[in-house]
Structures are given as C-alpha cells and as structure tokens.
C-alpha cells in the first residue's frame, strides 16, 4: 500500500524493497493508492492476492486517509477469510502497529510508547507460541540454525528501525489484542525497553513484524543493516510464508489488460538514496516508485529533496 510523501515528485510512494521482497518468492507488486474511491479500492482488492502494509512515517490517526483506506482493506480481508477464502495481510513496522491500532480502534498515542530503536540491529526473543506458528513453525522444525541466529545478540540479524513500539503489557490492558493476535516474539531497544516485535492473527493469515525483513537483502544506504547469510535467509523465509498464502487466494483481475495495467512496473524506479549525499539525515528507501508524478515546466520531474513523511 502506497503512502503519502511531501516535497517529492509524486502524490504517494512505494519503497522498492517491499516489491523486491515479494518478487523473491515469485510475486508481482501492485501499488494501492489510499486516495482512490471506495469502488476503485474494492475492485483492486478483488484483483490482488494479498496486502502489504509497509513501514513509513505516516501518523496513525484513525481519521487519516491512509488509515481509513487500510481499515477498509483489512475489513474486507477479514470478511473474505471468514467466508472461507484465503487472503493474507502483512504489516511491517508502521504496518505492524497499524494492525494493532485497527484491532483496538484506539489512538496510536494510547497504544504505543517511544522506543530507542532507529537503525538498531537486534534480536528476537521468541515466545512459546512461535514454535507452532504459521510464521516461524517450519523455521523451528527445519531451520533451527536460523532460530538461533535470530535470537543471538552476538549476531543481531534482525533490523529494527522505529521510534515507537507496543509494550507486551498493553495486551493485557486491551483484551481485544489478546483475543486477536498471538505474540510470537518481543525485542528490546537500546535502553532495554521490551516491545512486541512479531504477531500472528489467531484466525486469519495476518502477520506483523515491528522489524524489517525486507531491508537485509535490498537496502544499503543505512550501514547498520545486517547483510549476513542468515539475515537474508530469515527474510527469504518470511517472504515465502506470505507468498504461500497469497498463492491460495482466488482473487483475479478481470482481464490480462487490467492485470498488466495494475503492476508497479508501469512506474519508474528512482534511485532516491543519492539524496544521502545532499542530506546526511536521509532515512528513506534506496529505490522508490513514485505514483501520480507531477511534471515540472521543463517536462521533467519536480525537483527538491524527497521527504517520506
């Protein structure tokens, strides 16, 4: 799902790392604009096989247009799965937080606390539920070496990059969270604050990671991102889990023409990490797809540094 950006050459953007993350397991990406009509949004939902709510800097106010559109998509996904269909939803970082905000219908200011976890390679502290979960079950049974690496503070292969997190204690304060999600792992920020880092819906194929599985294989502008063999392997495992459910979805475009017109490849990928030369505090994607680009008077793209907030 695309997010808004300001002072950039488009109305919304998609970080290419997310498109590559699903491509690595055999999928093609379709950008979802949060500002289209309900009819267009519903038609797109019926044509895709899964939904990714990516990381970003959007404020999760319940009346924010992005949150409103995401809420509709998640509601339709819940209804589809409840009716016996298969439609997976994945939330990364901000998307992980959004899944929990939507479940409670509470303000993100009530649910989340500040964390010191920007550009912070870390670990997963697995809960007992992780070993039999949809996300980690086969990793525990077939790749215990990856489980050990993900939990090893000497390796720190889990890439965290967030300013806020969900304290595990809030699952007791909001019982709907305990009735909806299983906590599969927690992590800690630089000061030792514990927060929920991986969740899984108890009924539906909905998953959330506060950490970024897409960054180790595909993002390089932040030199704290781990690129080890095991960091990549964990990323591949999670991508495969999501895609195994997406393949079971029966949603289809109405025609080949519609299918081709939907794809992200209709947009130009921009090497936005070059902004790091001009702005040391740059914290955006390496490569970005911009949607609904505004043309400058000279026929080119509008100029200016890209801001992903």
From TrEMBL:
Where is the major localization of this protein? Answer: secreted
Matches recorded under InterPro entries: Class_I_gatase-like, Pept_C26_g-glut_hydrolase, Peptidase_C26
Task: Read off the SUPFAM superfamilies from this record.
Answer: Class I glutamine amidotransferase-like
Task: Report the GO molecular function annotations.
Answer: gamma-glutamyl-peptidase activity
User: Pfam families under this entry?
Assistant: Peptidase_C26
Q: Where in the cell is it found?
A: Secreted, Extracellular space
Listed A to Z, the keywords are: Hydrolase, Secreted, Signal
Q: Hydrolase: is it a keyword of this entry?
A: yes
Q: Which GO terms describe its cellular component?
A: extracellular region; vacuole
Q: Which EC number applies? A: 3.4.19.9
Does the record carry Signal as a key word? Answer: yes
Enzyme class, broadest EC rank: hydrolase
Q: Where is the catalytic site?
A: 93, 212
User: One biological process GO term for this chain?
Assistant: tetrahydrofolylpolyglutamate metabolic process
Q: Which reaction does it catalyse?
A: (6S)-5,6,7,8-tetrahydrofolyl-(gamma-L-Glu)(n) + (n-1) H2O = (6S)-5,6,7,8-tetrahydrofolate + (n-1) L-glutamate
Give the UniProt family note. Answer: Belongs to the peptidase C26 family.
Official protein name in the record: folate gamma-glutamyl hydrolase
Source organism per entry reads Elliptochloris bilobata
């Amino acid at each position: 799902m695309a997010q808004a950006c300001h002072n950039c050459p488009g109305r919304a953007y998609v970080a290419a790392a997310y498109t590559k993350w699903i491509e690595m397991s055999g999928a093609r990406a379709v950008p979802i604009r949060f500002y289209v009509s309900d009819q267009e949004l519903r038609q797109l939902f019926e044509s895709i096989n899964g939904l990714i709510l990516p990381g970003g800097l959007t404020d999760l106010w319940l009346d924010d247009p992005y949150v409103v559109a995401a809420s509709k998509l998640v509601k339709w996904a819940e209804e589809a799965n409840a009716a016996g269909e298969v439609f997976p939803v994945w939330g990364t970082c901000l998307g992980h937080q959004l899944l929990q905000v939507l479940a409670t219908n509470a303000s993100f200011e009530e649910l989340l606390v500040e964390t010191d976890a920007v550009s912070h390679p870390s670990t997963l502290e697995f809960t007992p539920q992780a070993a039999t979960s949809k996300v980690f079950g086969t990793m525990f049974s077939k790749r215990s070496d990856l489980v050990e690496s993900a939990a090893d503070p000497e390796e720190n292969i889990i890439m965290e990059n967030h300013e806020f997190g969900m304290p595990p204690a809030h699952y007791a304060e909001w019982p709907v969270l305990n009735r909806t999600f299983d906590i599969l792992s927690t992590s800690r920020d630089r000061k030792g604050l514990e927060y929920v880092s991986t969740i899984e819906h108890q009924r539906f194929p909905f998953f959330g990671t506060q950490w970024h599985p897409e960054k180790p294989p595909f993002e390089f502008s932040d030199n704290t991102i781990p690129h080890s063999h095991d960091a990549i392997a964990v990323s591949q495992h999670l991508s495969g889990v999501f895609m195994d459910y997406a393949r079971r979805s029966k949603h289809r475009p109405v025609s080949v023409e519609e299918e081709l017109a939907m794809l992200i490849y209709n947009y130009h990928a921009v090497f936005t990490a070059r902004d790091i030369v001009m702005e040391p505090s740059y914290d955006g994607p390496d490569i970005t797809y911009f949607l609904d680009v505004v043309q400058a008077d000279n026929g080119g793209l509008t100029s200016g540094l890209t801001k992903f907030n």
